[in-house]
Specification:
By secondary structure, this protein is of the alpha/beta class. The protein has 13 helices and 15 strands. The relative contact order is 0.17.
């Protein structure tokens, strides 16, 4: 029976490859009619075959593909441990929650403690702070790099400051060396949000290796995809166990799904006021969640890992193409700068419309969208102005003037690997057309 099943599986894999060729054949690009997305999934027959393989296993929770991905991805990112979860947002929730673990004793964060972060960012970098009763301290960003303004770190520091969480915006690393040194000097935890920055380096090191914890997203917009999915990275075995506990209902047990008695004393532990020998699989040391992903998602990730280097190279090349083609527009448009020690892995191509350009960001956005060129704003702009946080407790350093500039003037267009040379040329031509012809009027 096993041999027959394997033979059928091989036939299915071959048919999947044929299906992919027929169903996902490339389509001709027609400027102005075909969409130019800002991002999207880029996949081949092998990705679909991996997905079907996992489906045929019918192991619907975390399994063999997840274990394979965690091992390989940790190596790719230069971390000791990688813990998969169901989204990058969940990864941030797990990383922040890990800092509140009682097992950290005197270093554990408590409600009312402060965490330094950047005002111009994505909501789910910050939301876990509110969910854990922590107080964000918002600092401004640096323009035009879109990284944190490290000169504001000292002003943000208070006796209540316990940690820092900052994202590498659009794959362009901030001065994480300076931030890590500041964290070390003042005994602060550091979480690097690398959801937009897989493949980026700073001073020759992968982003995600400078702090205590790092997070990654595998949403279709990101560098590799599982559809949904995320990951927490760490060097510390202690944090590995804490994160896995929060991810797996908060349980103290570390058995893999479908396994039992990994510790060898499942019915011998004594915790809290539970009776001695209470089943370790149902003993909870954290107020946790179920944030695991499925093995089908992980299977796609395993196949995508083989393409990561090519994806990163394509993003850099596409970014470089747009930057070269838009040279000469600096009097009205501001383009991103890169720290001398950074090598970005671009998530998107940011553009800020200067205040004296004679047109505004919205006019440019409407023009591009009218040509079916996808655009996005820089996430939540100045988050302190978002309605979700109107009644939340936070501190602000300075006037956040540059975050407001980003909120009013910045957009970004795509540079992901699915864009062709024709698409990129059309984007550049359209921006030039808008400026030259006064399409903003």
């Amino acid at each position: 029976m096993a041999e027959r099943a394997e033979a059928i599986r091989a036939q299915i894999r071959a048919l999947v490859a044929e299906y992919h060729e027929a169903a996902f054949a490339p389509r001709a690009f027609v400027a102005g009619e075909s969409p130019v997305p800002v991002s999207g999934r880029v996949f081949g027959a092998g990705d679909v075959q991996h997905l079907v393989d996992a489906g045929l296993d019918f192991w619907l929770t975390t399994g063999r593909f997840a274990a394979q991905f965690e091992q390989r991805f940790a190596q790719v990112m230069g971390a000791r441990h990688a813990m998969l979860c169901n989204s990058g947002s969940s990864a941030n929730l797990l990383a922040v929650s890990a800092l509140t673990s009682p097992s950290l004793a005197g270093r554990a964060l408590h409600a009312g403690d402060e965490v330094i972060t950047v005002a111009a960012g994505f909501p789910t970098t910050v939301n876990p702070l509110f969910q854990n009763g922590l107080v964000p301290v918002f600092v401004d960003l640096d323009l035009p790099s879109y990284g944190i303004d490290v000169t504001q770190l000292e002003a943000a520091l208070s006796p209540k400051t316990r940690a820092i969480i900052i994202a590498h915006t659009l794959g362009n690393p901030y001065d994480v060396g300076a931030v890590a040194e500041f964290a070390k000097t003042h005994g602060l935890f550091l979480i690097e949000d690398c959801c937009d920055a897989v493949g980026a380096t700073f001073d020759g090191r992968s982003v995600g290796t400078f702090g205590d914890l790092a997070t990654v997203s595998f949403y279709p917009a990101h560098h590799i995809t599982m559809g949904e999915g995320g990951c927490v990275l760490t060097h510390a075995p202690k944090f590995k166990r804490i994160v896995e506990s929060f991810r797996d209902w908060g349980r103290d047990c570390w058995c893999d799904p479908g396994k039992a008695d990994t510790c060898g004393k499942r019915f011998e532990w004594q915790f809290g006021s539970l009776p001695r020998g209470y089943d370790h699989k149902y003993t909870y040391s954290h107020v946790g969640y179920n944030l695991k992903l499925t093995d089908m998602q992980a299977a796609v990730g395993v196949a995508q890992l083989d393409k990561l280097d090519a994806f990163v190279a394509a993003r850099r090349a596409n970014y470089g193409f747009l930057r070269d083609r838009l040279a000469g527009l600096e009097d009205v448009l501001e383009f991103a700068t890169v720290h001398p020690k950074a090598n970005p892995s671009w998530f998107g191509f940011p553009i800020r419309v200067r205040e004296d350009a004679g047109f505004d960001r919205n006019a440019l956005v409407r023009f591009l969208e009218g040509r079916k060129i996808g655009t996005r704003l820089l996430f939540g702009g100045n988050l302190t102005r978002q309605p979700a946080y109107a009644d939340q407790a936070f501190r602000v350093i300075g006037d956040l003037a540059r975050s407001d500039q980003v909120m009013r003037g910045t957009l970004w267009v795509g540079c992901y690997p699915g864009l062709t040379a024709e698409m990129l040329e059309f984007v550049a031509e359209s921006i030039w057309d808008f400026v030259r012809r006064g399409a903003h009027a």
